[in-house]
Design a protein that fits this description.
- This protein is α+β, with helices and mostly antiparallel strands.
- The chain has two domains: about 5-55, no CATH class; about 75-200, Acid Proteases (Cathepsin D, subunit A, domain 1, Beta Barrel), CATH 2.40.70.10.
- It is about 25% helix and about 35% strand.
- It contains five helices and 13 strands.
- Strands 3, 5, 6, 7, 8, 9, 10 and 11 form an eight-stranded mixed beta sheet that branches. Strands 4-13-12 form a three-stranded antiparallel beta sheet, with no helix packed on it. Strands 1-2 form a two-stranded antiparallel ribbon.
- β12 and β13 (about 195-200) form a beta hairpin.
Length: about 210
Amino acid sequence: MTSVFGTEVPDYLPAVVGGVVLLLVLQRVPVIGGAIRLLVSFAIIGVVAMLVLERASIDPVLAPLASRFNLDRQEVVGSEVRIRMASDGHFWANVSMNGAKRRMLIDSGATMTAISERTASAADVSPEAEIVPVLLRTANGLVQAKTARVPELRLGNIVARDLKVVVSPAFGEMDVIGMNFLSKLKSWRVEEGTLVLVPHHPQPVSAD
């Protein structure tokens, strides 16, 4: 293995370079070149579409697209929950995530529900394979994260099933409920220092 400017060259790099050179040569052949350009165009469109659809399941802005293609299996049901504002000016919820008990910050400014690696381990949640890394903009800058799905998250009388979350060591011990949870509710609002969460389909109080 050789090095360039002190960095290791991947084993597959010569094959990639050779493939690119071969494509450039073949493009000079009239018929073959046109077919190659067409295939490359379809490949680019396919990759872009795949990336957009992948992000649709974790971005509330693309939620209609996710619903149209049945990408988002998340379900939130339960009866109304009211949470008083804490002394620090935030809303904190006692949550059961796949059986693991956690105190999570409810943050409407967060696009995604985010959990720490410790919480993911306690809830037996494993990261999913990603085509490209997930980069999140936080108060401390861009951080890399992985996506995962929580089979069941209970917040009082509300249940979210198959909830998509992001996991990163950059979150420390912080766990946050974001807009991909809140956007699935019938409504949510703040009344005189109380956060009111209203799901679409009220259900009985859980036994635990």
